[in-house]
Amino acid sequence: MDAGESSFGHRQENQAPEVTLISTSKVTIYGTDSCGYCTAARTLLKKKGVDYDEVLVSRDDDTRQEMERLSGRRTVPQIFINDQPIGGFDELYRLDKNGELDKLLGRLANDNTI
């Protein structure tokens, strides 16, 4: 019996329902292997359970130029949600802290209770 169930297997009234967030957005990170901010961005997204595509630009000038053209910036990481540039790690972190990241990700609450 788990902590939220009575002896009859029913959820107790004071126990909050489990909620899983489901992302409906495409996330792409342009970055390098050696960039600390790139690693921080990957870690933040992994902790939130967000799948992302990663494009490494360290050894490919054409890909770096594509990143610069799409984002208007030269620094890494550059993060895109649904092909819209949101900036680097600082912007990603700020969006997460103020609750806007989940909205941008199109996250839907999925109630796992019976």
Descriptive account of the structure:
The radius of gyration is 19 Å and the shape is globular. The relative contact order is 0.23. The longest helix has 12 residues, at 36-47. The two termini are 16 Å apart. It is built from four helices and six strands; from the N terminus they run ββαβαββααβ. The chain has a four-stranded mixed sheet with strand order 3-2-4-5, sandwiched between helices. The chain has a two-stranded antiparallel sheet with strand order 1-6. A hairpin with a 2-residue loop joins strand 4 and strand 5. The protein has one domain: Glutaredoxin (3-Layer(aba) Sandwich). Helix 1 (36-47) runs parallel beside helix 3 (89-97). It is α+β, with helices and mostly antiparallel strands. Residues 109-114 have low confidence and may be disordered.
Quick structural summary:
The chain has four helices and six strands. By secondary structure, it is of the alpha+beta class.
Q: Helix content range of the residues, please? A: 25-40%
Backbone structural class: alpha+beta
- SSE run: EEHEHEEHHE
Strand order, main sheet: write it out.
Answer: 3-2-4-5
Task: List the keywords.
single chain; alpha+beta; Glutaredoxin; four-stranded mixed beta sheet; two-stranded antiparallel ribbon; 4 helices; disordered C terminus
Describe the protein's topology.
Blueprint: E1 19-22, E2 27-31, H1 36-47, E3 53-56, H2 61-71, E4 78-81, E5 84-87, H3 89-97, H4 100-104, E6 108-111
Parallel strand pairs: 2-3
Antiparallel strand pairs: 1-6, 2-4, 4-5
Helix pairs in contact: 1-3
